Amino acid sequence: MQNDVDRILLSRQTIADRVAALGREIADDLDGLSGHPAEIVLVPILTGAIVFVADLIRHLPHKLRIGVMSVSSYPGKSIESKGALIRGALPHNLAGKHILIVDDILDTGQTLTLVRDIIGEQRPAEIRTCVLLRKDRDEARRFSVDYVGFDIPNEFVVGYGLDHNDHYRNLPDIVTLRPEALL
Question: Which of 81, 84, 175, 181 fits a disulfide with 111 by CB distance 3.0 to 4.6 angstroms?
Fold first, then answer.
């Protein structure tokens, strides 16, 4: 697997430092909510955001609930988004709650739009969005997101939860792959 890596884009330490900073920023914003809501709901988009959200929640000293959503946009060996499709159960009982959608990467905005619209139908108090990575693409720059870990070049990346054909999620760094590994 290491032989498939072309270069490290973001090291594990760089990621850890930024996730801690994001956690502090989000925690400060949540502290500012009037009346400290009884429940905050994090909605990680699986499977790519699983590592990110696991690290992020360790920096959020609030009472919170997790309601996962499974969305697919890069099926199989695809290295370009093929559109967002819901693949699992939807979180419920979100009316009046403060929602934080957590995703691994903002590429086209289709996934976050779909998830935000579905959650919005349940009339939460508010919906905020957090992405670990935002690609340097027009679509991604136009999409409004509340918290961004890193802005990255418009390259296909894996590691730290991101995959190619369901592999490489366990790499601790975010990396690009050698062209022959993408075949």
Answer: 84
